[in-house]
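Thread: quick sanity check before group meeting

JM: Hey all, I'm pulling together slides for Thursday and realized we never actually wrote out the predicted structure for the chain we discussed last week. Dropping the sequence here so it's in one place. If anyone has concerns about the input, flag it before I start.
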Amino acid sequence: MPKFEEKKVKKIKEIFVKSLSEGVTFTKACEGVGINRTTIWNWRREDDIFDNEINFVLDARIQDVEDALYLNATEKNNVTAQIFWLKSRGGDRWKDKKDINMEPSKENNLSEEDMNELIRLAYKSITNIPGENPNEIK
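JM (edit): ok, ran it. Output follows.
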């Protein structure tokens, strides 16, 4: 893998970010500057300013799409866009499902015995297979 002099790297980074800001895909921007994606990712890890510039451009793209979606939902009365907007932006009021955090909590005061009993009961409620004995679960 060839090493680039600092001045050339700086120019490549500038062109890469400019390409992204003009709507070129990440892959096409890499091809345009003759650098593979891995090199770009390595540079991002090593250079916070470069990484922030890329993130700024990518965030701006997201905002552009959000704005277009909003216009489709409100001005063009696109029902699909309206539903998507409400489900993604309307909080829990419009979600089809609830998000449940399954990470163990530090506030969990259950004993190991109680926890095993809960697991046994949960298993029993979801399996209910004839001939199976949920009490055998340890």
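AS: nice. Helices lie at 6-21, 26-33, 37-46, 48-74, 79-89, 112-127. The two ends are 54 Å apart (CA to CA).
JM: adding both to the slides.
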